[in-house]
TrEMBL record:
<keyword id="KW-0812">Transmembrane</keyword>
<feature type="domain" description="PPM-type phosphatase">
    <location>
        <begin position="414"/>
        <end position="617"/>
    </location>
</feature>
<feature type="transmembrane region" description="Helical">
    <location>
        <begin position="68"/>
        <end position="86"/>
    </location>
</feature>
<keyword id="KW-1133">Transmembrane helix</keyword>
<keyword id="KW-0378">Hydrolase</keyword>
<feature type="transmembrane region" description="Helical">
    <location>
        <begin position="130"/>
        <end position="148"/>
    </location>
</feature>
<dbReference type="InterPro" id="IPR036457">
    <property type="entry name" value="PPM-type-like_dom_sf"/>
</dbReference>
<dbReference type="GO" id="GO:0016791">
    <property type="term" value="F:phosphatase activity"/>
</dbReference>
<dbReference type="InterPro" id="IPR029016">
    <property type="entry name" value="GAF-like_dom_sf"/>
</dbReference>
<feature type="transmembrane region" description="Helical">
    <location>
        <begin position="199"/>
        <end position="223"/>
    </location>
</feature>
<keyword id="KW-0472">Membrane</keyword>
<protein>
    <submittedName>
        <fullName>SpoIIE family protein phosphatase</fullName>
    </submittedName>
</protein>
<dbReference type="InterPro" id="IPR001932">
    <property type="entry name" value="PPM-type_phosphatase-like_dom"/>
</dbReference>
<feature type="transmembrane region" description="Helical">
    <location>
        <begin position="32"/>
        <end position="53"/>
    </location>
</feature>
<feature type="transmembrane region" description="Helical">
    <location>
        <begin position="169"/>
        <end position="187"/>
    </location>
</feature>
<dbReference type="InterPro" id="IPR052016">
    <property type="entry name" value="Bact_Sigma-Reg"/>
</dbReference>
<dbReference type="Pfam" id="PF07228">
    <property type="entry name" value="SpoIIE"/>
</dbReference>
Amino acid sequence: MTLVAQAVFAAGVFIYYRFQPDPLRGTDFVGLFRRLVLGPGILASICVALHLLERFVQYQLPSSDRTFFAVIYTINSGLFILFLASTTYTWRSLVLFRSSGRLRREWELFEILLGGTLLLRLLGWELPTYLMLLVIGGLAIFGVYLSGNQKWVAYLNRRQKWEVVFMQLAILLCMTIFVAYFVRIQYDPKLIAPEPQHAFLLLTVFFAAFYAVMGLFVTFFNLPTAGVFEQKREEILSLQRLTQLIQRGQTEEDVYSMLFDATVQTVEADAAWLDIEVSDEAYKGQRYHITEEQCTAIRGLLADYNLGHIEYLNNDLPNSSGFRSLGLPFGSLIVMPLRSTKRQYGALYMLKNQPQGFDRENLGILQTFTSQTILSIENLQLVAASIQNERVQEELKIASTVQESLIPKDLPIDNWFEISSHAMAAKEVGGDFYDFLHLPGQRLAILIGDVSGKGITAAFHMAQMKGIFHALMQENPLARNEREKFPVPSKFMAMANKALVHCLEKSSFITASLYIIDYENRGFVFARAGHCHTLYYHSIKEEVSYFRTTGLGLGIIRHDAYEKHIKNQFYDYNPGDVMVIYTDGIVEARGQIRRNTARIDCNRCWSVRITLRPMKLRI
């Protein structure tokens, strides 16, 4: 009956732990071992305390009843079963860490075989000796096979591996305390435990102890390689940090600093420096445990051998004649250029005190780091260029809006003339413009022009020219006669040229044509300041011709001699004549014939057609 109760208790404990949540949380292996040590440690302490109590009672009461010792033994057996169940299913979490489905099925088979064998032994069902040895031996081999799954060890760093080694030793110590107790108690004359109990406990502890020993050896022998794995992990983290810098919008200097710190740490350099070929004088590079004079000496020697901008590895500087003459305390050198397909960014220099300090793996690491750095730098430059382009586009959009607002929307209306205009929006902001102004005495002033260059500056000068036009074409209250109240076109051009001297850059100029049409007297006067020739249609002759007049653009000559280069031209028109004035966008346009239809593609086109009655004049 006692054996059945113990069998039910053991089965219940193991089943309870079997269906508990996985004690492993992520990859917190140290925490898992810490919890395991605290559990078995407490149980082992209780076992020792009970054993000491038993010894004390036996010493004080030599003739005490055996029942007390049986109770102590039963309690310790229960504690040992709890300890084994906790340990076994902790090992299960480690065995099945990132395992395949096949390994999980093998573990389930092992659980069934182990549980069945232990319960049979506990209930005292004896098999033939050879068959029992065969079963136990096969089960032991199966346990050894499963104990080889120690993938979790690779996820520990050096410090964690040392912690796990000491905790595994503590677990083995707890097992030793339990086993020593049960081995000793079986020879006690006051309490002879039944043989099946001892077999059950010893067979159960075999797998738990063997996996602990295997884990201890695997962890211990992996200690020498822990530094290599940590170095590899640090390399990956450094690459991740370099990549994240661009995502956080850091500067080029931050990326270079990150590269320098990461490479010095990864290859364990004793000295290093970074040369950067940049236009920004604020950042020249970095140095680590090396003076500027030493850098200059090495840099000069490499330049003499034409090695300054290529990959270079020298692991025997003391025996290299050129470096030996420098008398520097270094034994190994790596030079890693920072370059892309477009340009050279600089070079990275790594030094170690001892010869043979670097290997090809270090060279490969530096190649990876510098390639990622150049990629990050070029990405930063692309982002900066994109932001600048967006800013320019926004400014051009504003300038285009301003330019459009300066072009007259309402054309002059009168019974004497007919005006139509065409203005095609520019793909880029330019300085093309035209404007109208009514003058007393049935006269109309028309100004058309083009500012050199493109962009916001051209649009700004266009606005200035429009302002000058409206300012100069106002009535002069001090005029001595009617003709002097408003400037003639040549006078206007001279005055505008003088005003623009203080506005235009030396490399800028403006072409313009000013027409003053007196449609009551059927004539007009105009002056051309380097602008496109006027196209004129003679209705009586039915001929088309240009007004080919001389004239120099505004701002080309910036003194009083400019007046000599501007002339007025007078012309009387007939009814039905048409005049077309335009900017050079019309001339530069490329025509394409598609399906017998003419199409003009213009970057910028401004034209005005004026029809006057009884003369038709189109501009």
